[in-house]
Amino acid sequence: VQLQASGGGLVQAGGPQRLSCAASGLTFSNNPMGWFRQAPGKEREFVAAISRSGSSTYYADSVKGRFTISRDNAKNTVYLQMNSLKPEDTAVYFCAARTAYWVDSRAKDYDYWGPGTQVTVSS
User: Fold this and answer.
1) Strands 91-97 and 57-59: what pairing?
2) What is the percent of the chain where pLDDT is above 90?
3) 102: left (phi over 0), alpha (psi -120 to 50) or beta
4) What pLDDT, in 10s, does the model give residues 67-93?
5) What span, in angstroms and rounded, lies between the C-alpha atoms of 43 and 94?
6) In contact, 49 and 65? CB cutoff 8 Å
7) Rounded distance, CA 21 to CA 35, Å?
């Protein structure tokens, strides 16, 4: 299984950024997907998750109303649209796949991880 996140970079505060995560080696439509992030010196934290069909989505309170997770099962890709970015959103963002049926917000319950992409928000 491979998960490859892309779309990170340097963005000004208030601006948008869109992350993509392409999956291979799994039956993508069978896997709930999640985005997590880790800032320097901090633990990895949940950002957003989406059900297998995409009909259900979940967000951390810190990003609710600003970030949108979506997926395209025909393209084996999950997205994270980030709007109104803040300096505190600066982190390495990881996508992850879960083999169990239900969506989850706990990192330990995800089975496959990509290498992450850096997002830096300048003030």
Assistant:
1) unpaired
2) 100
3) beta
4) 999 999 999 999 999 999 999 999 999
5) 13
6) no
7) 9
Total residue length of the chain: 123
Q: Is 25 left (phi over 0), alpha (psi -120 to 50) or beta?
A: left
Distance, CA of 12 to CA of 32 (rounded, Å): 31
Distance CA 92, CA 116 (A): 6
Q: How far apart are the first and last CA of the chain?
A: 37
Amino acid, single-letter form, for residue 14:
G
Using CA atoms of 79, 94, 107, 69 in order, give the dihedral in degrees to the nearest 10: -10
Phi-psi region of 29 (alpha: psi -120 to 50; beta: other; left: phi over 0): alpha
Residue 78 region by backbone torsions, left for phi larger than 0, else alpha for psi between -120 and 50, else beta: beta
Chain center to CA of 81 = 9
